[in-house]
């Protein structure tokens, strides 16, 4: 299983970063990737036969997140109430602006968040995202549109301008 | 409004705060090792659980066992080779109410170095019970070479518990991902492991998991009468070679297997890591090889590690036979496949 170990060592940093962006939490990301690594080990003969094992495992992480995080967003809202409207003095720094966006991302439904992470963090095009999620490109665009609409909600023009200039 | 830039910046600002590679890798390795325990030779008095791999497809196990638990000798079987059911070494006598989805059923066969003709059998069930919108994952596994005194529960230090008069150890990770774990002695040696957990956000009451896990353990049946039907079989393995393990499970999507179960076998002497692995596979590669049983083949040689795909063997899916053995050995195994008609 030397190939498995080499593969995992090479892919692990990316998988952990990706899982971190998906889940929003370090511990959840660690658990998610750990589960996937165990599954990859068991199925390595099959996965290593695929044309793109890295993409295959990325899909496993994504599917794990989508199936694992049921009701996640609801719990986050309950645990960390967000203001309905952001106030100017909440954004005294870029850091605060990004933290606010981080919280907004956490409130997204899981598929919308997955699309946002794949598009803006993994830099995948919609066709690749559709392939990864097993849906149509139009579905990807719809998720992205809804997500961006939600994320914009409550941000003032000044705050977005600040983000653009930073 | 450049919200897209803000999103990218937000991700970038958090990408340094990731879990430690080594910690995650070590934790995963620990779980893998725990599952592989049954594959390691260890001198243990062999109280052999009954595993019936009925009919000619599995006579290669060539072991002795109680007469009512062994397959009929090959010369008593008149029928043509057929894909035989595989019997699990233990059965689950009780599961919580709901729809049961078996994800994996697996058996490992281990021969000890001291007594290689008396193999030990370890079985495993992985399943999901769905009821009232709740998915309850249940994993039950036999570790034939572990004892309850040696085991380490995942969640936290275990607590003693008595199940059917036997001393076990249990651990409950209330509200957490660890779920409920329980080890109890197997009557013929080793430890039985019962793990019950729900999915995130782990809203199931901890006591529910405890009750389910204990009751599953109380109702384990030895020997097993549960059979599974693999998607392909084997017959008449070469001398000295046994089936060291098999696993049957739901295909990992995407799969051309359709409704057929993914199936895997490990072949060898069972005293060391099995040298040959067979499994239903997805994408074949390599160069065209000799047709086998009317099926085209492909093969790859990677520094002496050979892979041979028998194409269109199960539905439209190939069977992959692989190992660090001569390619002719893999063709020999391929000719002993029992394929669905």
TrEMBL record, chain A:
InterPro entries: RNA_pol_sigma-70-like, RNA_pol_sigma-70_dom, RNA_pol_sigma-E_actinobac, RNA_pol_sigma70_r2, RNA_pol_sigma70_r4_t2, RNA_pol_sigma_r2, RNA_pol_sigma_r3/r4-like, WH-like_DNA-bd_sf. GO terms for molecular function: DNA binding; sigma factor activity. The keyword Transcription regulation applies. The keyword Transcription regulation applies. Residues 99-151 form the RNA polymerase sigma factor 70 region 4 type domain. Residues 8-73 form the RNA polymerase sigma-70 region domain. Pfam families: Sigma70_r2, Sigma70_r4_2. Keywords: DNA-binding, Sigma factor, Transcription, Transcription regulation. GO terms for biological process: DNA-templated transcription initiation. Transmembrane segments: none annotated. It comes from the Bacteria. NCBIfam families: SigE-fam_strep, sigma70-ECF. Belongs to the sigma-70 factor family. ECF subfamily. This is RNA polymerase sigma-70 factor (Sigma-E family).
From TrEMBL, chain B:
Residues 157-177 are annotated as: Disordered. Keywords: Membrane, Transmembrane, Transmembrane helix. The keyword Transmembrane helix applies. The chain crosses the membrane at residues 41-61. This is Uncharacterized protein. It comes from Actinophytocola algeriensis.
